[in-house]
Model the fold of this input.
Amino acid sequence: MSISHHPETVLIVDFGSQVTQLIARRVREAGVYSEIAPFQSAEEAFRRLQPKAIILSGSPASTVETGSPRAPKVLFESGLPILGICYGQQLLCAQLGGKVESSDHREFGRAFLDIEDSCALFEGLWAPGTRHQVWMSHGDRVTALPEGFRVVGTSAGAPFAAIADDRRKYYGVQFHPEVVHTPDGAKLIANFVLKIAGLKGNWTMAAYREQAVEAIRRQVGSGRVICALSGGVDSSVAALLTHEAVGEQLTCILVDHGLMRKDEAASVVNMFREHYNLPLILVDASERFLQALDGVTDPEVKRKTIGRLFIEVFEEEAKKLGGADFLVQGTLYPDVIESVSFTGGPSVTIKSHHNVGGLPERMNMKLVEPLRELFKDEVRELGRELGLPEHFIGRHPFPGPGLAIRCPGVVTREKLDILRQADAIYLEEIRKAGLYDAIWQAFAVLLPVQTVGVMGDGRTYEYVCALRAVTSVDGMTADFYHYDMDFLGRTATRIINEVRGINRVVYDITSKPPGTIEWE
Ligand SMILES: Nc1ncnc2c1ncn2[C@@H]1O[C@H](COP(=O)(O)OP(=O)(O)OP(=O)(O)O)[C@@H](O)[C@H]1O
Ligand SMILES: O=c1[nH]c(=O)c2[nH+]cn([C@@H]3O[C@H](COP(=O)(O)O)[C@@H](O)[C@H]3O)c2[nH]1
Ligand SMILES: NC(=O)CC[C@H](N)C(=O)O
Ligand SMILES: [Mg+2]
Done:
């Protein structure tokens, strides 16, 4: 769903980079509204949005290959400032008369940029003669510049690592200013939109709220709406926005799929009925979900089964309400990028988040997803804007497929009960130690492995429980949380002593990448 027209929009043309959304995010952080359009529909988006500046993203494609994507001509005829990033820079050169070649000097990860000349992009940031850390990920490189361009920065693998045509306000960088590993990258993007494009930078989350509410009203009209409400931050914010937009037309539905944590369904219902005046229906569908998952071990099959059942339940409930035309979900950008290729193009599917790639192909209701372009921390900011209490905003995320994806292998009631107890103890210990807010997400996983132990002089042969805790900003990348060993020891002892069925506890020290946060 796209937000209403904004007077100062930056159009980001996506060529399939995994980090395109980070560009949008950096532009938003600079106080400027932006929208992403896949390259195939960039021309249409350009006409619709009437942007004030354009950014061309990176891509897994190579400009030297025939048939690789190009930016539509109208962008170059528009007279607007353009920033090309990585593939975007290579495109500027390929399409404006320069040259790009595949090279042996590939650069992946940390690299250093030597500033050769002053440039509006670097203003107040990088002076000529200085060297700065940037993040690179490329095999091709520019070898000849189009007319009007000059080199302003070089790196070991890229003699044209930063280029500028000041007259046309065209700029290109081989590195990625949108990722945090280019420490000054956000400021560089701010320079492009504020100083070079001359935009005001007065766009805020309050404005997003207004635009989102307006967009929901336009989309929904006088239709009936149901909201899939999990009690997580995302769907709660989506529900409140929708309620603000269409009031009485909205009914929220919480599905207890039998894969919730301990006491979760009841506490969510209490919270919403106490704190908010939102009509909420709790549906107990645990029998149905667990039956459908019987014997299923493949993670993608689990996700798709759950996604399909969610929709079936929503459709049935909608029917009981006399029909609904729209389904609101708290889908975020990371759900989208990991599930499906944003461009319909070449970025790969990591896992099917139940609410995106896990959705059935045919659905009666149209989706309303007001948070689809945002990252978790931005949703939290929006939640504050909507007056959600801080303890609520700080809740760790919990995936829609719930404990099913924390039970690798077959999911049974018995295993779920064991996992629920271990998870509750783990989170209780985290809270007691005052660590909850320092950790982005923490949970227990019940492994489909039994090991031998000795308890009370007897032999045991029981499950292994893995503990996971990560720090992250947006869930896209994460590091494992560095507990002290006493904490881990204490928690493991409690779990083994108190939970029948677990006789061994391990701690997961994998970051993302290469791991994902969840185990399935
Ligand atoms: N048990 C559930 N009942 C109804 N809807 C659900 C349930 N679980 C998930 N959903 C829907 O799926 C969406 C995606 O789930 P997800 O876990 O990403 O978001 P969330 O639960 O709202 O927030 P959080 O990420 O903080 O847990 C939710 O926003 C919600 O619309
Ligand atoms: O609603 C959801 N439906 C899903 O299918 C799903 N899969 C993962 N997650 C959550 O997304 C974040 C990133 O998880 P991964 O690193 O495992 O992909 C983490 O916060 C995960 O808990 C999901 N949320
Ligand atoms: N990250 C990118 O945009 C890479 C562009 C191109 N595929 C290259 O390897 O150079
Ligand atoms: Mg959730």
